[in-house]
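notes to self, project folder thing:

trying the whole complex as one job this time. last attempt i did each chain seperately and stitching them together was a nightmare. two parts in total, labels are on each line so i dont mix them up again. if this works i'll redo the older ones the same way
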Amino acid sequence: GENVEQHPSTLSVQEGDSAVIKCTYSDSASNYFPWYKQELGKRPQLIIDIRSNVGEKKDQRIAVTLNKTAKHFSLHITETQPEDSAVYFCAARTNTGNQFYFGTGTSLTVIP
Amino acid sequence: GAGVSQSPSNKVTEKGKDVELRCDPISGHTALYWYRQSLGQGLEFLIYFQGNSAPDKSGLPSDRFSAERTGGSVSTLTIQRTQQEDSAVYLCASSLVGTPSGANVLTFGAGSRLTVL
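result (full assembly):
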């Protein structure tokens, strides 16, 4: 089955700096890669996603890049703000089913 | 409904008791998932239902755990003879399954926090 690895597990940045979280996947059949943000005590919420036919997608301060050849995808947050502090999860979904495989999460702290 | 609803939001039980957790997915979503999240940990897959297909139970940690989905909508996760290590937040999620390249956004419920004393 699919195996998703996520790094780093914790990340601290100064407000205004950029943050990058990286994930790798093992199944070349995976074709959909969402990112979820989970604030303390809240449910995971989708913040951005990318499909395998696209290399990059941007939504205001967040962007996701996908390298299908290397089987890795990354989340980029620019001009970080304290409200960006949360746990971020990456996931991959294969086209052979509808199962989602999650990374282990990155705890991001933005220091004011 | 407008979102994924889970109940109860909090459940405190004694070791050895059975508990039932309920999930009501978004109307029309054919795929339903259960995940477990222990304090400060990631999302542990438990079980996945898709339409009338046999569920994927590969994530259930022991035979004390079971789940059913009646009428293709509401799902119940049952934990028998609860143990302290079962304490966690149990998250339900649903998605609309289309073509492999179509929209399959996974939407989570608020979770059921289970505490086993």
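what i see at first glance: The CA atoms of residues 58 and 64 of chain A lie 6 Å apart.
need to look closer tmrw
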